[in-house]
Design goal:
alpha+beta; Immunoglobulin-like; 5 domains; 6-stranded mixed beta sheet
Length: about 550
């Protein structure tokens, strides 16, 4: 026994130097895939392994298996092995590595090759925030999103192999899974075209179909930033008003003293040493010119300051549209723009709703499943492609009536006293994973609250408690049901539930039930009109006073 152990120990020592020498003499092979390692299912792909000139056999392994998938002894020119996969499927996705055998022994194994197969799930959406039009050197955020529960997204840049970014997804209140990718600075040296894929964490080598290609476009930075331009206008306008104030002061002073010498002295200070007749004959036209210049400059400045304000996109009669009915999308600008660009976010493949040019409104009739989604609009000047607004806030268009209506119950039933507690229950026999509580209140935008459906005996339900109930809760409530697979497709609405609060509580009048999705855009049209009107009135008063002072001075001098 001792002799056997000694022999084995000696053999081990004698083999060790040979193994180390073999590892130094025969480096690990190189592995790659052609045409690429990210391949669409159903296509063919070849995995190549390359070692040294003395290779006799190549072994291809898939991580997770101790045995080689295949052994190849018939080598191609260049002493490399070609492991061909004629039709790639989900079973081929994974991590691969290869080794080779030579007369001196087995080599080290290659680095890992990740073979990704795409096309298993529906493609995600890709969009640029705030816009795909970017100034040179600027930055933009790319958004990948889908109603599928993808755990991660991969953003790839076209034209550059092995250039990609990975981000974990985040679930939004509307049920979508979203990931944001900051990109930039954007320059003209490269092609800025992107796609994104989604995958589930448990199958990280099986990706979705690719999104549509998103192309970033460069815009002239000077066409977007009017800051310096506007500051110059404001300064000139302020200077005009100062000059008008000085002229008015001197004119009034001259009228009080009735001294022609004082008037001429003031004019000489302001206008320079000119003959008296020239000063008298040219003062009023100069004042009128200054007034007109000041008014036009102020008007132009206020117009330029708001050029890039967001327009407002709304749906009439509602963004919740029964199947087969109609809806009108309206885009309004506070600056009076009449031409708009409407697009359906993340739906580049649907050309009917991409980059529609319209004047104020666009009708969808009849409403179908193809029309659901997120819409935005942008105002622009047709004669100047570089004058455009920011993109509006998103407008979500929902189709309803695809499923049977759920029930909405209130415990206790209305009317209810202010300060009490109430529970609202949405329930249905259908397997709704999400319930949406829609609230309509007087003088308040329609509010949506998404509730998670939970199974119970006889179906699914979701509950929400209101405590304490105040006058702010008064309104009409309806409940809809939806599936996480189709978050833009809702059921018929439940029967309306009128919430009546019997004792208004004035002390809680400022309390609001926080159901609003997104922010409400403020309309500055009235404010801007008031400002313009006041500015015009001030200039008109100055003109009247100066004209009256000039007339009195002429009559006094005469």
């Amino acid at each position: 026994m001792i002799f056997t152990f000694a022999v084995l120990f000696h053999l081990g020592l004698s083999l060790e130097p040979r193994s180390m020498a073999a590892a130094e003499k025969f480096p690990k092979p190189t592995i790659w895939a052609e045409p690429e390692s990210v391949i669409t299912k159903g296509l063919s792909v070849a995995i190549f392994c390359f070692g040294t000139q003395e290779v006799q056999k190549y072994y291809l392994y898939k991580k997770g298996s101790l045995k080689p998938l295949t052994i190849q002894t018939s080598l191609e020119p260049g002493n490399k092995a070609n492991f061909s996969i004629p039709v790639i499927t989900e079973y081929h996705a994974g991590l691969y590595y290869c080794c080779y055998h030579s007369p001196s022994g087995l080599s080290e194994c290659s680095d890992i090759l990740e073979l990704v197969v795409t096309g298993f799930y529906s493609k995600p959406n890709i969009s640029a925030l705030p816009s795909s039009l970017v100034t040179s050197g600027g930055k933009v955020t790319l958004q990948c999103s889908s109603h599928q529960g993808y755990g991660r997204y991969i953003l790839t840049k076209e034209g550059e192999q092995n250039v990609s970014w990975t981000q974990d997804s985040q679930k939004e209140p509307n049920g979508h899974f979203v990931a944001l990718f900051p990109v930039g600075p954007v320059t003209s040296k490269h092609r800025w075209a992107f796609r994104c894929y989604g995958y589930y964490e448990r199958t990280s080598q099986m990706w979705s179909m690719p999104s549509e290609t998103l192309q970033l476009h460069l815009a002239d930075s000077h066409s977007q930033d009017h800051t310096v331009e506007n500051l110059i206008r404001m300064a000139v306008a302020g200077l005009v008003l100062v000059v008008l104030g000085i002229l008015l002061f001197e004119a009034q002073n001259s009228q009080r003293t009735h001294q022609d010498s004082g008037w001429r002295k003031s004019c000489m200070v302001l206008l320079g040493k000119l003959p008296p007749v020239s000063r008298s004959s040219t003062m009023l036209p100069a004042v009128l010119s200054l007034l007109c210049s000041g008014f036009l400059l102020l008007q132009n400045t206020w117009a330029q300051v708001g050029v890039f304000d967001k327009p407002t996109l709304s749906a009439w009669p509602s963004s919740l549209v029964p199947i087969g009915e109609h809806v009108t999308l309206k885009c309004l600008s506070q600056l009076g723009f009449e031409v708009f660009r409407l697009f359906k976010e993340n739906e580049v493949h649907n050309l009917e709703f991409q980059n529609i040019i319209l004047r104020h409104s666009f009708d969808i009739n009849p409403m179908t499943m193809a029309h659901v989604g997120t819409y935005r609009c942008q105002s622009f000047e047709p004669n100047d492609p570089y004058k455009f607004s920011e993109i509006s806030e998103s407008l979500l268009i929902i189709v309803t009536g695809l499923y049977r209506k759920p029930s909405l119950l209130a415990l206790p039933a209305p009317p209810i006293k202010s300060g009490a507690m109430m529970t609202l229950k949405c329930c249905s026999e259908a397997m709704f994973e999400t319930f949406i509580l829609v609230v309509n209140r007087k003088d308040v935008n329609e509010s949506h609250l998404y509730l998670v459906g939970k199974p119970y005996t006889g179906g699914f339900q979701a509950n929400i408690s209101l405590s304490p109930v105040t006058s702010a809760h008064a309104g009409t409530y309806r409940c809809y049901g939806s599936s996480s697979q189709h978050s833009y497709v809702w059921s018929d609405p439940s029967d309306p539930l009128d919430m009546v609060v019997t004792v208004p509580d004035a002390s809680n009048s400022s309390y609001h039930f926080n159901l609003t999705q997104g922010s409400v855009m403020k309309d500055y049209t009235l404010e801007n009109s008031i400002r313009m009107g006041v500015a015009g009135l001030v200039l008109l008063i100055l003109l009247i006073i100066l004209a009256e002072a000039w007339r009195n001075h002429r009559s006094t001098a005469g």
